[in-house]
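step=encode ok
step=design start
structure_in=
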Protein backbone atom coordinates (compact mmCIF):
# COMPACT_ATOMS: atom_id res chain seq x y z
CA UNK A 1 0.00 0.00 0.00
CA UNK A 2 1.38 3.37 -1.03
CA UNK A 3 1.65 5.99 1.69
CA UNK A 4 2.13 9.71 1.08
CA UNK A 5 3.99 11.93 3.46
CA UNK A 6 2.35 15.42 3.24
CA UNK A 7 4.24 17.01 6.10
CA UNK A 8 6.84 18.68 3.83
CA UNK A 9 3.97 20.19 1.74
CA UNK A 10 1.97 21.53 4.67
CA UNK A 11 3.35 25.12 4.50
CA UNK A 12 2.53 25.32 0.80
CA UNK A 13 -1.00 23.92 1.27
CA UNK A 14 -1.69 26.37 4.06
CA UNK A 15 -0.56 29.31 1.92
CA UNK A 16 -2.78 28.12 -0.99
CA UNK A 17 -5.89 27.84 1.17
CA UNK A 18 -5.29 31.33 2.57
CA UNK A 19 -5.03 32.72 -0.99
CA UNK A 20 -8.33 31.08 -1.99
CA UNK A 21 -10.03 32.48 1.12
CA UNK A 22 -8.72 35.97 0.38
CA UNK A 23 -10.01 35.81 -3.21
CA UNK A 24 -13.47 34.64 -2.07
CA UNK A 25 -13.66 37.52 0.38
CA UNK A 26 -13.50 40.13 -2.37
CA UNK A 27 -15.87 38.39 -4.82
CA UNK A 28 -19.56 39.51 -4.67
CA UNK A 29 -21.80 36.84 -3.24
CA UNK A 30 -25.52 36.99 -4.13
CA UNK A 31 -27.77 34.71 -2.12
CA UNK A 32 -30.37 32.77 -4.10
CA UNK A 33 -33.29 34.32 -2.15
CA UNK A 34 -32.10 37.86 -3.05
CA UNK A 35 -32.61 37.17 -6.75
CA UNK A 36 -36.36 36.65 -6.29
CA UNK A 37 -38.95 39.46 -6.15
CA UNK A 38 -39.92 40.50 -2.64
CA UNK A 39 -43.38 41.57 -1.46
CA UNK A 40 -43.94 45.33 -1.33
CA UNK A 41 -43.87 47.33 1.88
CA UNK A 42 -46.94 49.58 2.22
CA UNK A 43 -45.93 51.39 5.40
CA UNK A 44 -44.69 54.53 3.65
CA UNK A 45 -47.83 54.67 1.50
CA UNK A 46 -50.08 54.44 4.55
CA UNK A 47 -48.23 57.31 6.21
CA UNK A 48 -48.37 59.35 3.00
CA UNK A 49 -52.00 58.80 1.96
CA UNK A 50 -53.66 57.79 5.25
CA UNK A 51 -54.31 61.37 6.48
CA UNK A 52 -56.21 62.11 3.23
CA UNK A 53 -58.76 59.32 3.78
CA UNK A 54 -61.90 60.13 5.76
CA UNK A 55 -64.75 58.27 7.41
CA UNK A 56 -68.25 59.28 6.31
CA UNK A 57 -71.32 58.76 8.50
CA UNK A 58 -74.79 59.58 7.28
CA UNK A 59 -77.84 60.40 9.38
CA UNK A 60 -81.54 60.53 8.61
CA UNK A 61 -84.36 62.17 10.49
CA UNK A 62 -86.74 59.68 12.09
CA UNK A 63 -90.34 60.58 12.86
CA UNK A 64 -91.45 60.28 16.46
CA UNK A 65 -93.50 57.11 16.99
CA UNK A 66 -96.64 57.08 19.10
CA UNK A 67 -96.18 53.39 19.90
CA UNK A 68 -92.86 53.69 21.74
CA UNK A 69 -89.57 52.01 20.74
CA UNK A 70 -87.94 48.81 21.89
CA UNK A 71 -84.96 49.45 24.12
CA UNK A 72 -81.97 49.99 21.81
CA UNK A 73 -79.62 47.51 23.50
CA UNK A 74 -82.30 44.82 23.58
CA UNK A 75 -83.08 45.39 19.89
CA UNK A 76 -79.40 45.03 19.00
CA UNK A 77 -79.34 41.72 20.91
CA UNK A 78 -82.29 40.37 18.94
CA UNK A 79 -80.85 41.53 15.60
CA UNK A 80 -77.37 40.10 16.22
CA UNK A 81 -78.64 36.61 16.99
CA UNK A 82 -81.55 36.61 14.54
CA UNK A 83 -84.20 36.26 17.24
CA UNK A 84 -87.74 37.53 16.45
CA UNK A 85 -88.68 40.52 18.57
CA UNK A 86 -91.26 39.33 21.15
CA UNK A 87 -94.42 41.40 21.52
CA UNK A 88 -93.79 41.89 25.25
CA UNK A 89 -90.17 43.07 24.82
CA UNK A 90 -89.23 45.97 27.13
CA UNK A 91 -89.76 49.30 25.45
CA UNK A 92 -88.20 52.68 25.90
CA UNK A 93 -90.33 55.54 27.13
CA UNK A 94 -92.69 56.90 24.52
CA UNK A 95 -91.26 59.95 22.76
CA UNK A 96 -93.06 63.22 23.07
CA UNK A 97 -94.71 63.94 19.66
CA UNK A 98 -94.15 67.63 20.27
CA UNK A 99 -90.38 67.10 20.27
CA UNK A 100 -88.45 67.56 16.97
CA UNK A 101 -87.44 64.55 14.88
CA UNK A 102 -84.21 62.84 15.91
CA UNK A 103 -81.23 62.07 13.68
CA UNK A 104 -80.60 58.33 13.52
CA UNK A 105 -77.49 56.62 12.04
CA UNK A 106 -78.12 55.54 8.47
CA UNK A 107 -74.84 54.20 7.13
CA UNK A 108 -71.04 54.33 7.15
CA UNK A 109 -68.72 54.79 4.20
CA UNK A 110 -65.37 56.20 3.18
CA UNK A 111 -64.02 59.08 1.14
CA UNK A 112 -60.87 61.03 0.41
CA UNK A 113 -59.87 64.67 0.39
CA UNK A 114 -59.81 66.00 -3.15
CA UNK A 115 -58.66 69.58 -2.45
CA UNK A 116 -56.99 71.34 0.44
CA UNK A 117 -60.04 73.60 0.92
CA UNK A 118 -62.41 70.79 1.85
CA UNK A 119 -63.85 69.04 -1.22
CA UNK A 120 -64.23 65.32 -0.50
CA UNK A 121 -64.99 62.58 -3.02
CA UNK A 122 -67.04 59.47 -2.23
CA UNK A 123 -69.70 57.21 -3.77
CA UNK A 124 -73.15 58.49 -4.63
CA UNK A 125 -74.74 55.51 -2.87
CA UNK A 126 -72.93 56.44 0.36
CA UNK A 127 -74.72 59.80 0.67
CA UNK A 128 -77.96 58.92 -1.14
CA UNK A 129 -81.03 59.73 0.99
CA UNK A 130 -78.96 61.23 3.83
CA UNK A 131 -80.33 64.20 5.77
CA UNK A 132 -76.93 64.88 7.30
CA UNK A 133 -73.37 63.85 6.40
CA UNK A 134 -70.58 63.73 9.01
CA UNK A 135 -66.96 63.60 7.83
CA UNK A 136 -64.33 62.44 10.34
CA UNK A 137 -60.63 63.02 9.65
CA UNK A 138 -57.81 60.78 10.86
CA UNK A 139 -56.99 63.37 13.57
CA UNK A 140 -60.55 62.78 14.93
CA UNK A 141 -61.89 66.18 13.86
CA UNK A 142 -65.52 66.01 12.74
CA UNK A 143 -67.28 68.25 10.22
CA UNK A 144 -70.82 68.49 8.94
CA UNK A 145 -70.58 68.21 5.17
CA UNK A 146 -72.71 69.74 2.44
CA UNK A 147 -73.57 67.48 -0.50
CA UNK A 148 -72.37 69.38 -3.58
CA UNK A 149 -73.74 66.81 -6.02
CA UNK A 150 -74.14 63.09 -6.67
CA UNK A 151 -74.31 61.19 -9.95
CA UNK A 152 -76.01 57.81 -9.78
CA UNK A 153 -74.88 56.67 -13.23
CA UNK A 154 -71.21 56.82 -12.29
CA UNK A 155 -71.77 56.40 -8.51
CA UNK A 156 -69.62 59.47 -7.79
CA UNK A 157 -70.46 62.16 -5.23
CA UNK A 158 -68.71 65.29 -3.94
CA UNK A 159 -69.26 66.77 -0.47
CA UNK A 160 -67.74 69.90 1.06
CA UNK A 161 -66.50 70.56 4.59
CA UNK A 162 -65.51 73.97 5.95
CA UNK A 163 -61.78 73.52 6.52
CA UNK A 164 -58.51 74.62 4.98
CA UNK A 165 -54.97 73.28 4.78
CA UNK A 166 -56.18 69.71 4.43
CA UNK A 167 -53.94 66.91 3.07
CA UNK A 168 -55.26 66.31 -0.47
CA UNK A 169 -54.53 63.14 -2.42
CA UNK A 170 -52.41 62.91 -5.55
CA UNK A 171 -54.28 61.86 -8.68
CA UNK A 172 -52.71 59.06 -10.73
CA UNK A 173 -52.57 58.43 -14.46
CA UNK A 174 -54.95 55.58 -15.21
CA UNK A 175 -53.22 54.84 -18.53
CA UNK A 176 -50.09 53.79 -16.61
CA UNK A 177 -52.00 51.28 -14.46
CA UNK A 178 -51.14 47.69 -15.43
CA UNK A 179 -52.81 44.37 -14.75
CA UNK A 180 -50.83 42.58 -12.03
CA UNK A 181 -49.69 45.83 -10.41
CA UNK A 182 -49.87 46.12 -6.62
CA UNK A 183 -52.53 48.45 -5.23
CA UNK A 184 -53.80 49.36 -1.78
CA UNK A 185 -57.13 50.47 -0.32
CA UNK A 186 -57.86 52.47 2.82
CA UNK A 187 -61.37 52.76 4.22
CA UNK A 188 -63.85 51.89 6.96
CA UNK A 189 -65.11 48.34 6.33
CA UNK A 190 -67.92 47.55 8.78
CA UNK A 191 -67.18 50.92 10.39
CA UNK A 192 -63.57 50.00 11.27
CA UNK A 193 -61.82 53.27 10.44
CA UNK A 194 -58.45 53.52 8.68
CA UNK A 195 -58.33 49.87 7.66
CA UNK A 196 -55.63 49.08 5.09
CA UNK A 197 -55.91 46.20 2.59
CA UNK A 198 -53.80 45.38 -0.46
CA UNK A 199 -53.78 43.22 -3.58
CA UNK A 200 -53.22 43.43 -7.32
CA UNK A 201 -55.09 44.75 -10.34
CA UNK A 202 -56.98 41.75 -11.73
CA UNK A 203 -58.34 43.41 -14.89
CA UNK A 204 -58.97 46.79 -16.51
CA UNK A 205 -61.86 48.02 -18.62
CA UNK A 206 -64.25 45.58 -16.93
CA UNK A 207 -67.71 46.38 -18.33
CA UNK A 208 -70.41 46.36 -15.66
CA UNK A 209 -72.22 49.55 -16.62
CA UNK A 210 -73.01 51.93 -19.45
CA UNK A 211 -70.59 54.67 -18.49
CA UNK A 212 -67.92 52.95 -16.41
CA UNK A 213 -65.08 50.62 -17.44
CA UNK A 214 -64.27 49.38 -13.91
CA UNK A 215 -60.89 48.41 -12.47
CA UNK A 216 -61.13 44.88 -11.06
CA UNK A 217 -58.85 43.97 -8.14
CA UNK A 218 -58.50 41.30 -5.48
CA UNK A 219 -58.06 43.92 -2.75
CA UNK A 220 -60.28 43.05 0.23
CA UNK A 221 -63.23 45.44 -0.01
CA UNK A 222 -66.25 45.14 2.30
CA UNK A 223 -69.32 47.22 3.19
CA UNK A 224 -68.00 50.53 4.52
CA UNK A 225 -65.06 50.63 2.09
CA UNK A 226 -67.33 52.29 -0.49
CA UNK A 227 -66.00 55.68 -1.55
CA UNK A 228 -62.47 55.08 -0.33
CA UNK A 229 -59.39 55.40 -2.57
CA UNK A 230 -57.56 52.72 -4.54
CA UNK A 231 -53.88 53.67 -4.39
CA UNK A 232 -50.90 52.64 -6.54
CA UNK A 233 -47.35 52.12 -5.31
CA UNK A 234 -46.51 55.75 -6.09
CA UNK A 235 -49.05 56.93 -3.54
CA UNK A 236 -51.49 58.13 -6.21
CA UNK A 237 -55.23 57.52 -6.26
CA UNK A 238 -56.20 55.51 -9.34
CA UNK A 239 -59.77 54.60 -8.43
CA UNK A 240 -62.72 54.83 -6.05
CA UNK A 241 -63.72 51.56 -4.40
CA UNK A 242 -67.34 51.06 -5.38
CA UNK A 243 -68.60 47.49 -5.72
CA UNK A 244 -67.87 43.91 -4.77
CA UNK A 245 -68.93 40.60 -6.26
CA UNK A 246 -70.32 38.57 -3.41
CA UNK A 247 -72.79 35.80 -2.70
CA UNK A 248 -72.55 36.27 1.07
CA UNK A 249 -72.38 40.06 1.38
CA UNK A 250 -68.66 39.91 2.25
CA UNK A 251 -65.44 39.97 0.26
CA UNK A 252 -64.89 37.05 -2.14
CA UNK A 253 -61.80 38.11 -4.07
CA UNK A 254 -63.43 40.33 -6.70
CA UNK A 255 -63.76 44.08 -6.19
CA UNK A 256 -64.50 46.91 -8.59
CA UNK A 257 -63.23 50.49 -8.54
CA UNK A 258 -64.25 53.52 -10.58
CA UNK A 259 -61.28 54.76 -12.66
CA UNK A 260 -60.12 58.07 -11.24
CA UNK A 261 -60.07 59.85 -14.61
CA UNK A 262 -63.80 59.13 -15.04
CA UNK A 263 -64.46 60.18 -11.44
CA UNK A 264 -62.54 63.45 -11.78
CA UNK A 265 -64.47 64.30 -14.96
CA UNK A 266 -67.74 63.79 -13.09
CA UNK A 267 -66.55 65.66 -9.98
CA UNK A 268 -65.61 68.73 -11.98
CA UNK A 269 -69.14 68.99 -13.36
CA UNK A 270 -70.63 68.40 -9.91
CA UNK A 271 -68.53 71.19 -8.41
CA UNK A 272 -69.50 73.61 -11.19
CA UNK A 273 -73.22 72.92 -11.56
CA UNK A 274 -74.16 70.26 -9.00
CA UNK A 275 -75.13 67.82 -11.76
CA UNK A 276 -73.60 65.90 -14.65
CA UNK A 277 -74.56 66.61 -18.26
CA UNK A 278 -74.07 63.77 -20.73
CA UNK A 279 -74.44 63.52 -24.46
CA UNK A 280 -76.72 61.18 -26.39
CA UNK A 281 -77.48 60.43 -30.04
CA UNK A 282 -80.60 58.27 -29.63
CA UNK A 283 -79.64 54.77 -30.73
CA UNK A 284 -80.10 51.30 -29.29
CA UNK A 285 -77.01 49.19 -29.83
CA UNK A 286 -75.70 45.65 -29.52
CA UNK A 287 -72.46 43.73 -29.98
CA UNK A 288 -71.30 42.70 -33.46
CA UNK A 289 -70.69 38.96 -33.44
CA UNK A 290 -67.80 37.42 -35.36
CA UNK A 291 -70.22 35.51 -37.57
CA UNK A 292 -72.15 38.65 -38.53
CA UNK A 293 -68.95 40.67 -39.08
CA UNK A 294 -67.61 38.05 -41.50
CA UNK A 295 -70.90 37.60 -43.33
CA UNK A 296 -71.41 41.32 -44.09
CA UNK A 297 -67.81 42.01 -45.08
CA UNK A 298 -66.80 43.93 -41.95
CA UNK A 299 -63.95 41.50 -41.37
CA UNK A 300 -63.56 41.34 -37.62
CA UNK A 301 -65.97 41.75 -34.72
CA UNK A 302 -65.86 45.44 -33.90
CA UNK A 303 -68.08 48.49 -33.57
CA UNK A 304 -71.63 48.89 -32.28
CA UNK A 305 -74.59 47.41 -34.16
CA UNK A 306 -77.45 49.91 -34.35
CA UNK A 307 -80.61 47.95 -33.52
CA UNK A 308 -82.91 50.94 -33.30
CA UNK A 309 -82.92 54.68 -33.97
CA UNK A 310 -85.16 57.00 -31.97
CA UNK A 311 -87.37 59.07 -34.22
CA UNK A 312 -86.26 62.71 -34.31
CA UNK A 313 -83.09 62.01 -32.31
CA UNK A 314 -79.66 63.28 -33.45
CA UNK A 315 -78.81 59.92 -35.04
CA UNK A 316 -82.07 59.94 -37.00
CA UNK A 317 -81.48 63.49 -38.25
CA UNK A 318 -77.92 62.58 -39.27
CA UNK A 319 -79.10 59.62 -41.35
CA UNK A 320 -78.00 56.73 -39.13
CA UNK A 321 -80.18 53.69 -39.82
CA UNK A 322 -81.04 50.49 -38.00
CA UNK A 323 -78.58 47.86 -39.17
CA UNK A 324 -75.68 50.30 -39.45
CA UNK A 325 -72.53 49.45 -37.56
CA UNK A 326 -70.87 52.45 -35.93
CA UNK A 327 -67.15 51.78 -36.26
CA UNK A 328 -65.65 55.16 -35.28
CA UNK A 329 -66.64 58.15 -33.18
CA UNK A 330 -64.67 61.34 -33.86
CA UNK A 331 -62.01 59.21 -35.54
CA UNK A 332 -61.59 56.90 -32.53
CA UNK A 333 -62.18 53.23 -33.23
CA UNK A 334 -64.99 51.48 -31.37
CA UNK A 335 -63.74 48.04 -30.39
CA UNK A 336 -66.89 46.95 -28.58
CA UNK A 337 -70.43 48.26 -28.31
CA UNK A 338 -70.00 49.50 -24.72
CA UNK A 339 -67.33 51.98 -25.90
CA UNK A 340 -69.92 54.09 -27.73
CA UNK A 341 -72.10 55.23 -24.76
CA UNK A 342 -68.98 56.36 -22.87
CA UNK A 343 -67.61 58.27 -25.86
CA UNK A 344 -70.94 59.96 -26.57
CA UNK A 345 -71.64 60.61 -22.89
CA UNK A 346 -68.39 62.52 -22.45
CA UNK A 347 -69.23 64.99 -25.25
CA UNK A 348 -70.89 68.28 -24.36
CA UNK A 349 -74.44 68.56 -25.76
CA UNK A 350 -74.62 70.79 -28.82
CA UNK A 351 -71.24 69.63 -30.14
CA UNK A 352 -71.11 68.43 -33.75
CA UNK A 353 -69.14 65.20 -34.20
CA UNK A 354 -68.30 62.79 -37.01
CA UNK A 355 -69.65 59.25 -36.78
CA UNK A 356 -68.38 56.56 -39.16
CA UNK A 357 -70.83 53.81 -40.05
CA UNK A 358 -70.49 50.58 -42.02
CA UNK A 359 -73.54 50.04 -44.22
CA UNK A 360 -74.01 47.37 -46.89
CA UNK A 361 -70.34 46.82 -47.51
CA UNK A 362 -69.15 50.44 -47.40
CA UNK A 363 -68.20 53.03 -44.79
CA UNK A 364 -69.77 56.45 -44.54
CA UNK A 365 -69.05 59.52 -42.39
CA UNK A 366 -72.08 61.27 -40.92
CA UNK A 367 -72.23 64.55 -38.97
CA UNK A 368 -74.18 64.23 -35.71
CA UNK A 369 -75.07 67.02 -33.29
CA UNK A 370 -74.99 65.64 -29.73
CA UNK A 371 -78.11 66.08 -27.58
CA UNK A 372 -78.43 65.94 -23.79
CA UNK A 373 -79.39 62.75 -21.97
CA UNK A 374 -83.01 62.75 -20.92
CA UNK A 375 -85.38 60.32 -19.25
CA UNK A 376 -85.80 57.07 -21.15
CA UNK A 377 -88.91 56.91 -23.30
CA UNK A 378 -91.15 53.84 -23.22
CA UNK A 379 -90.75 51.55 -26.19
CA UNK A 380 -93.35 52.03 -28.89
CA UNK A 381 -95.30 48.97 -29.99
CA UNK A 382 -95.41 48.05 -33.64
CA UNK A 383 -98.70 48.49 -35.47
CA UNK A 384 -100.90 45.47 -35.94
CA UNK A 385 -102.13 46.70 -39.33
CA UNK A 386 -103.34 44.01 -41.66
CA UNK A 387 -100.83 43.03 -44.29
CA UNK A 388 -101.44 42.14 -47.88
CA UNK A 389 -101.75 38.48 -48.86
CA UNK A 390 -98.43 36.62 -48.94
CA UNK A 391 -96.69 36.24 -52.24
CA UNK A 392 -95.15 32.90 -53.22
CA UNK A 393 -91.80 32.74 -55.02
CA UNK A 394 -88.11 32.00 -54.56
CA UNK A 395 -88.38 32.91 -50.89
CA UNK A 396 -90.14 29.62 -50.30
CA UNK A 397 -86.82 27.83 -50.81
CA UNK A 398 -85.67 29.39 -47.52
CA UNK A 399 -88.96 28.62 -45.80
CA UNK A 400 -90.29 32.18 -46.14
CA UNK A 401 -93.55 33.69 -47.27
CA UNK A 402 -93.32 37.47 -47.55
CA UNK A 403 -95.48 40.40 -48.57
CA UNK A 404 -95.10 44.11 -49.23
CA UNK A 405 -95.58 46.46 -46.29
CA UNK A 406 -97.90 49.43 -46.33
CA UNK A 407 -96.82 53.06 -46.39
CA UNK A 408 -98.25 53.43 -42.89
CA UNK A 409 -96.00 50.62 -41.65
CA UNK A 410 -92.98 52.18 -43.32
CA UNK A 411 -93.71 55.48 -41.61
CA UNK A 412 -94.30 53.85 -38.25
CA UNK A 413 -91.04 51.86 -38.42
CA UNK A 414 -89.15 54.78 -40.00
CA UNK A 415 -87.88 52.69 -42.92
CA UNK A 416 -87.82 53.26 -46.67
CA UNK A 417 -88.85 49.75 -47.70
CA UNK A 418 -88.79 46.08 -46.84
CA UNK A 419 -90.95 42.98 -46.85
CA UNK A 420 -93.02 41.50 -44.05
CA UNK A 421 -92.55 37.87 -43.05
CA UNK A 422 -96.01 36.26 -43.13
CA UNK A 423 -94.93 32.66 -42.59
CA UNK A 424 -91.64 31.04 -41.70
CA UNK A 425 -90.35 27.47 -41.84
CA UNK A 426 -87.24 25.44 -42.60
CA UNK A 427 -83.87 27.23 -42.73
CA UNK A 428 -85.39 30.65 -42.00
CA UNK A 429 -87.11 29.34 -38.87
CA UNK A 430 -83.90 27.65 -37.69
CA UNK A 431 -82.08 30.98 -38.12
CA UNK A 432 -84.56 32.67 -35.77
CA UNK A 433 -86.79 34.59 -38.17
CA UNK A 434 -90.34 35.09 -36.91
CA UNK A 435 -93.71 35.88 -38.37
CA UNK A 436 -94.15 39.65 -38.33
CA UNK A 437 -90.46 40.44 -38.86
CA UNK A 438 -89.64 42.99 -41.57
CA UNK A 439 -86.66 42.17 -43.80
CA UNK A 440 -84.95 45.41 -44.88
CA UNK A 441 -81.84 43.99 -46.56
CA UNK A 442 -80.47 40.67 -47.73
CA UNK A 443 -76.80 39.94 -48.47
CA UNK A 444 -76.04 43.67 -48.11
CA UNK A 445 -78.65 44.54 -50.75
CA UNK A 446 -81.41 46.94 -49.73
CA UNK A 447 -84.93 45.53 -50.02
CA UNK A 448 -87.63 47.88 -51.33
CA UNK A 449 -90.43 45.34 -51.85
CA UNK A 450 -91.28 41.75 -52.73
CA UNK A 451 -90.07 42.04 -56.33
CA UNK A 452 -86.75 43.48 -55.26
CA UNK A 453 -86.42 40.90 -52.51
CA UNK A 454 -86.94 38.00 -54.90
CA UNK A 455 -84.62 39.52 -57.50
CA UNK A 456 -81.86 39.84 -54.90
CA UNK A 457 -82.54 36.35 -53.60
CA UNK A 458 -82.33 34.85 -57.11
CA UNK A 459 -78.73 36.10 -57.42
CA UNK A 460 -77.58 34.61 -54.12
CA UNK A 461 -75.74 31.31 -53.82
CA UNK A 462 -78.17 29.23 -51.70
CA UNK A 463 -75.36 26.85 -50.71
CA UNK A 464 -73.72 29.59 -48.60
CA UNK A 465 -74.80 31.53 -45.52
CA UNK A 466 -77.24 34.36 -46.28
CA UNK A 467 -77.17 37.46 -44.07
CA UNK A 468 -80.53 39.15 -43.53
CA UNK A 469 -81.12 42.46 -41.73
CA UNK A 470 -84.43 42.28 -39.87
CA UNK A 471 -86.57 44.83 -38.06
CA UNK A 472 -88.47 43.38 -35.13
CA UNK A 473 -90.67 46.08 -33.68
CA UNK A 474 -88.38 49.09 -33.21
CA UNK A 475 -85.17 47.05 -33.08
CA UNK A 476 -82.97 45.73 -35.86
CA UNK A 477 -80.76 42.65 -35.88
CA UNK A 478 -78.78 40.51 -38.30
CA UNK A 479 -79.96 36.95 -38.89
CA UNK A 480 -77.83 34.42 -40.75
CA UNK A 481 -79.76 31.78 -42.71
CA UNK A 482 -77.61 28.69 -43.11
CA UNK A 483 -78.16 26.16 -45.90
CA UNK A 484 -79.35 22.69 -44.98
CA UNK A 485 -76.49 20.20 -44.61
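sequence_out=
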Amino acid sequence: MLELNLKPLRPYLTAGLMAIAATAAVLPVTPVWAQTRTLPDFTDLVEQVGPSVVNIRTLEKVKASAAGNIDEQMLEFFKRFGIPVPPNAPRAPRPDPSQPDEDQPRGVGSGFILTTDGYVMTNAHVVEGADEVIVTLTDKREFKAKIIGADKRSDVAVVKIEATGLPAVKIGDISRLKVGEWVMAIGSPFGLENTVTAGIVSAKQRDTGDYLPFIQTDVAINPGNSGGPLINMRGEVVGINSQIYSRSGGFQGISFSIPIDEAIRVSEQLRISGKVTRGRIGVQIDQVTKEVAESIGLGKSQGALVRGVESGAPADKAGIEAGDIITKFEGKAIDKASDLPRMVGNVKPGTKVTVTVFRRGATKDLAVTIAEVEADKPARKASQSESRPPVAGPAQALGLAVSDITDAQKKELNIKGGVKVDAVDGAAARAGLREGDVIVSIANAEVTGVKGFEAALAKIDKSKNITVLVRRGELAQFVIIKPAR
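step=design ok
step=annotate ok -> Confidence is low (pLDDT under 50) at residues 77-82, 375-392.
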